[in-house]
Amino acid sequence: MIEPKKSYISNTKYFALTGLLSMSFVAKQKVVASEKTPNFIVIFADDMGYGDVGIYGHPTIKTPNLDRMAVEGQKWTSFYSAAPVSTPSRAGLLTGRLPIRSGMCSEKRRVLFPNSKGGLPQTELTIASALKTVGYATACVGKWHLGHLPGHRPNDHGFDYYYGIPYSNDMDKIDMDYQEALFNPKIEYFNVPLMRNTEIIERPAKQNTISQRYTEEAVKFITENKEKPFFLYLAHSMPHVPLFRSQEFENRSLAGIYGDVIEELDWSVGQVLDALKNNGLDDNTIVIFTSDNGPWLTFKQHGGSAGLLKGGKGGTWEGGMREPAIFWCPGKIKPMVVTDIGATLDLLPTFCKLANANLPSNKVYDGYDISPVLFGTGTSPRNVMLFYRDTEVFAVRKGGFKVHFVTQSEYGNESKKILEQPLLFNLNHDPAEKYDIAEKHPEIVAELKQILTYHNGTITSVENQLEK
């Protein structure tokens, strides 16, 4: 069934007033004091696919803790990352702004590298820095990938404490064949640093225990801050290749080494949830589990699965940006399966609303307050999702419909294809994007093209951070 068509005028007004200017409204509305604001934990996997979790359909990877989270909380089925690769995706999550607005995406260098000089600008407000204004303790544990030089590190962006690897775990590779290093990895092949705040404490990082040590740091932070509100950003380095897991998880999964890695991440989730319960914090801590982008299909069985979705990391088909997303807070979050559209961009405005933290009104924010969905009092205000590949929008979703204006393979030398006749899919009927219906619905294609034209008019030029 085709959704009723709204006029372009009402669409653009809605998109302008409730989309791009949504946080200006939040910043100006009256703050109502609450007795106790919630804690927030974001558990962020790296390159984990939509189909890599048991409750999202994987037949052999066992994820009992994530499955339990979903049963006790909310499983979202149309939740998106801000970008299909790491650096821009993380920038979008922490700032609530599309990475094009902060200069955190590029056609030349898709992510930051150890020789990059740029990073998240000081002019950007993160979840951590916003929550610190209302007394929150903040910690980043795990992968950062938003700049490793002074001015761009976690401690420069509102985090009281940092422990982790500052960029991807496959970087700082010694001089050897890349494929060999990734498919048969050893710790010494990757000279990545492990940092505590701004100090390197181990190099190369012993990645076979990295998920375990991230978990220990997360549990320690929870325990030490149980008397105050806190925000914990636990950004795992796995399952990004090279795949490492601790000895306890070797050959445990039916799904091979990739399954071992995911099952260790699930164990980590269980440790975090247990720490909350043991400290009496589970009924006042909102925990979110999701991933930065889809699976890295280039690495085959080391790369995960997007399930029934098309594509993976690096691209703008659904598999590149639609992620598993689970929200949990017993007694507060209403248990259900949510089919509304949501995105990592929505976390900052949601957290700020619940913590009574105001945001400046002089910036354009791309996120929405989705707390009405979490508490069962309303539906998601997000109706539009933009699919950026680097600095260009390749596709637009509105409601159930998604149109592709440009296509390109995720990796390789294929040039982008600007489509003379865009592709249109009804994702409610066809989440695998198999059946093009553009010829039957030219009015929908035209409507989404107008949304894109309007959005492009809101973008202003900023200094590119990835090309420094």
Give a verbal description of the structure.
The protein has 468 residues and is of the alpha/beta class. 26% of the residues lie in helices and 19% in strands. The chain folds into two domains: 8-17 and 386-456, Arylsulfatase, C-terminal domain (2-Layer Sandwich), CATH 3.30.1120.10; 37-380, Alkaline Phosphatase, subunit A, CATH 3.40.720.10. The protein has helices spanning 8-20, 22-28, 64-72, 86-95, 127-132, 178-183, 210-224, 256-278, 318-321, 347-355, 371-374, 442-456; strands at residues 39-45, 74-80, 137-142, 161-164, 194-196, 199-202, 230-235, 285-291, 322-328, 336-343, 384-389, 392-398, 401-407, 417-426. The longest helix is centred in the middle third of the chain and has 23 residues, at 256-278.
Q: How many strand elements?
A: 14
Q: How many domains, as an integer? A: 2
| Main sheet record | 10 strands, mixed
CATH superfamily name of the largest domain? Alkaline Phosphatase, subunit A
Reported by name, the CATH topology of the largest domain is Alkaline Phosphatase, subunit A
The portion of residues forming beta strands comes to 15-25%
* Helix and strand element order: HHEHEHHEEHEEHEHEHEEHHEEEEH
Shape: globular
- Tell me the distance between the termini: 49 Å
CATH class of the largest domain reads: Alpha Beta
* Helicity level: 25-40%
Q: Helix- and strand-based class?
A: alpha/beta
Q: What is the overall pLDDT average?
A: 93
Low-confidence stretches: 1-34
The largest beta-sheet arranges its strands as: 6-5-4-3-7-1-8-9-2-10
What is the CATH architecture descriptor of the largest domain? Answer: 3-Layer(aba) Sandwich
- Total number of helical segments? 12
Radius of gyration: 21 Å
